[in-house]
Write a sequence for this structure.
C-alpha cells in the first residue's frame, strides 16, 4: 500500500485509531448484492468467442492493436452497463497464437487511469510481462505524483507487448495488473483469453472447431441503473486504492457471467465437447458439477490444466476451480438423451451463484473425436534436482488490516527471492485463510498440497489454491528470461491489499 495515513485523512477515509481497532476485520470474501433485478437464467445465448484477426501477420509476427476504453455493454436485459474493455469489449478480443510465432499487442490507454496488461501463464520477457508499476498512462495524461517505483518502465499513452510463445500449447489469459487497483479494473472488464496452439496438440483427435468452446466464468454485481457495482471508496480509481473495510477478504458478485452473458444456454449435439474453462472471478471459487448426472456417469474428463495438456486424462466428478485457474474438460453429451438439458452448476454455492450455464442437447450427430490415453509427454522435472527450498507464509495482518507474504506488504523496491536462471527450486507455501497463489513466468508441478497432491493438481500449474491453514510445495525451473517478476495471491482484493512479492531471475 502506497498511501499514508495522512493521505487517508485528507480523503476523509481514515478512522480514528481507537475506532479502527475495534472493527472486526472480515477476512472472508463477501457478497455485494446487485441492486438491479437479477435476469432470468438460461435465456441469453452463450457468446461464442472467436479468434481476433491480427492487423498484420508479417515476418513471423502477428500484430494486434487494442484500444482500451469505456464502452456500453448489454449484459442485463433492458439495461446498459458501462464496461472498460480492450477494444471496448468484455471479455476482450480472444487471441489465438501458435507456438514459436511471436505475437505483438499494442495497447493504447483511453481510460482515465493507468493500466498494465499482463499475460497470465505466459513465459514472457520482463519488459512485456506487465509488472504492476509498468504503467501505461492514459493518452489524456496522469499526475506524476502517483508513481513510486524507480525501476518502473512507465509508458505514455501506449505500449507494445511482445509474446514469444516459446512454451507449450495452453489457454492463457490477459488482464489488468495495475498496482493496488487490479481488482476494480478487472471487475470493470479488463480481461481476455489467449489460446496458444502447437502441432503436438493438433495431432490429437480431441473435439475441435465448433466443439471446442472457451468459457470465461466470472461473477459480477450490478447497480439498479445497470452499472457494475463494486465497493471501491474512490470509484474514479484515480486517487485512492481503498475498498470498503468489509470487503477486504474479497468481493463476490451474485450474477454469474459466462463469456460476458448472465447464466447463458448453449445448444449442443449428443457428442463430446471440449470446454476450456477459466475462472476470471476476483475472489469466487466454483465447484463445477453437472445436474442432472446420469446414474453411473462421470461428469468430466480433464485433459489439461493451467499449463496445457496433462500426460493422461483424469476423470473427475466435480472440479474445484479458484480464481485464475484453468481446466480443460471434456463433457460427453452422448450420456444424455436428445431433447434433454443439463446444467453446469456451482455446488459450492446455493441461490443465484449456484448455477452457471445450461446445455440443451438438441440434436444427434456423429462423433469422430476421441480422448487418447496418452495426451502429452510427462514433465521432465524432478525434486531431486532442486537446488534450493524457499518458504513463504501468506497471512492476514490484523493490526494493519491487510494481507502479507512472510509478514511483509508488497514493495517494488524489495527483492524477495533471487532464483538462478535454469535452476530448479522447491517453494513451500503456508496459509491462514484460503489463497489461490500464482507465480509469473514459470509453470510448476505440485509436490504436496495439504498432504499429497489433490485431485485438481494434475499437470503444469501456474496457480494453486490453498485452503485455510494449508501447506503446499511446488517444483519449478526458472527458465526463459532473467529479470524481475511478481508472485501473489490471485484473490484480486488480497493482491491489491499487498499480498504480492518479487522474484528476480539472475
Ligand atoms: Cu493473473 Cu499476476 O496475474
Ligand atoms: Cu500471471
Ligand atoms: Cu489471498
Amino acid at each position: 500500500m502506497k498511501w499514508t495515513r495522512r493521505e487517508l485523512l485528507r480523503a476523509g477515509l481514515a478512522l480514528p485509531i481507537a475506532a479502527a481497532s475495534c472493527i472486526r476485520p472480515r477476512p472472508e470474501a463477501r457478497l455485494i448484492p446487485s441492486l438491479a433485478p437479477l435476469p432470468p437464467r438460461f435465456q441469453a445465448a452463450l457468446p461464442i468467442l472467436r479468434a481476433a484477426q491480427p492487423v498484420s501477420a508479417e515476418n513471423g509476427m502477428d500484430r494486434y492493436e487494442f484500444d482500451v476504453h469505456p464502452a456500453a455493454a448489454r449484459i442485463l436485459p433492458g439495461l446498459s452497463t458501462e464496461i472498460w474493455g480492450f477494444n471496448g469489449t468484455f471479455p476482450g478480443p480472444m487471441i489465438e497464437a501458435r507456438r514459436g510465432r511471436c505475437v505483438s499487442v499494442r495497447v493504447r490507454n483511453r481510460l482515465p487511469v493507468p493500466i498494465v496488461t499482463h499475460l497470465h501463464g505466459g513465459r514472457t520477457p520482463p519488459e512485456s510481462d506487465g509488472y504492476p508499476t509498468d504503467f501505461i498512462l492514459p493518452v489524456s495524461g496522469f499526475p506524476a505524483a502517483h508513481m513510486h517505483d524507480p525501476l518502473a518502465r512507465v509508458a505514455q499513452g501506449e505500449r507494445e507487448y511482445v509474446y514469444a510463445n516459446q512454451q507449450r500449447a495452453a489457454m492463457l489469459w490477459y488482464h489488468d495488473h495495475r498496482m493496488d487497483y487490479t481488482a476494480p479494473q478487472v471487475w470493470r472488464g479488463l480481461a481476455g483469453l489467449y489460446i496458444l496452439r502447437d502441432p503436438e496438440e493438433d495431432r490429437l483427435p480431441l473435439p475441435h472447431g465448433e466443439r471446442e468452446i472457451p468459457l470465461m466464468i466470472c461473477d459480477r454485481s450490478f447497480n439498479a441503473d445497470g452499472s457494475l457495482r463494486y465497493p471501491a471508496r474512490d470509484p474514479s480509481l484515480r486517487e485512492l486504492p481503498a475498498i470498503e473495510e468489509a470487503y477486504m477478504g474479497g468481493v463476490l458478485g451474485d450474477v454469474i457471467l459466462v463469456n460476458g452473458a448472465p447464466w447463458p444456454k448453449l445448444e449442443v449435439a449428443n457428442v463430446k465437447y471440449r470446454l476450456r474453462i477459466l475462472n476470471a472471478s476476483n475472489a469466487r471459487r466454483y465447484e463445477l458439477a453437472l445436474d442432472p448426472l446420469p446414474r453411473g456417469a462421470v461428469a468430466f474428463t480433464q485433459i489439461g490444466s493451467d499449463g496445457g495438456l496433462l500426460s493422461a486424462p483424469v476423470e473427475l466428478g466435480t472440479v474445484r476451480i479458484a480464481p485464475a485457474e484453468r481446466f480443460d474438460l471434456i463433457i460427453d453429451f452422448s450420456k444424455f438423451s436428445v431433447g434433454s438439458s443439463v446444467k453446469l452448476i456451482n455446488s459450492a454455492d446455493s441461490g443465484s451463484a449456484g448455477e452457471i450455464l445450461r446445455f440443451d442437447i438438441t440434436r444427434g450427430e456423429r462423433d469422430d473425436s476421441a480422448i487418447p490415453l496418452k495426451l502429452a509427454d510427462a514433465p521432465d522435472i524432478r525434486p531431486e534436482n532442486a537446488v534450493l527450498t524457499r518458504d513463504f507464509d501468506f497471512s492476514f495482518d490484523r493490526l494493519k488490516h491487510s494481507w502479507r507474504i512472510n509478514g511483509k506488504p508488497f514493495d517494488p523496491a524489495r527483492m524477495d527471492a533471487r532464483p538462478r536462471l535454469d535452476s530448479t527450486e522447491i517453494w513451500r507455501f503456508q496459509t491462514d485463510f484460503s489463497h489461490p497463489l500464482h507465480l509469473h513466468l514459470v509453470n510448476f508441478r505440485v509436490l504436496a498440497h495439504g498432504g499429497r497432491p489433490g485431485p485438481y493438481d494434475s499437470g503444469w500449474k501456474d496457480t494453486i489454491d490453498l485452503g485455510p491453514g494449508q501447506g503446499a510445495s511446488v517444483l519449478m525451473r526458472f527458465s526463459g528470461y532473467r529479470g524481475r517478476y511478481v508472485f501473489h495471491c490471485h484473490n484480486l482484493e488480497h493482491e491489491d491489499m499487498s499480498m504480492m512479492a518479487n522474484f528476480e531471475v539472475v
Observations:
- The first strand starts at residue 30 and ends at 31.
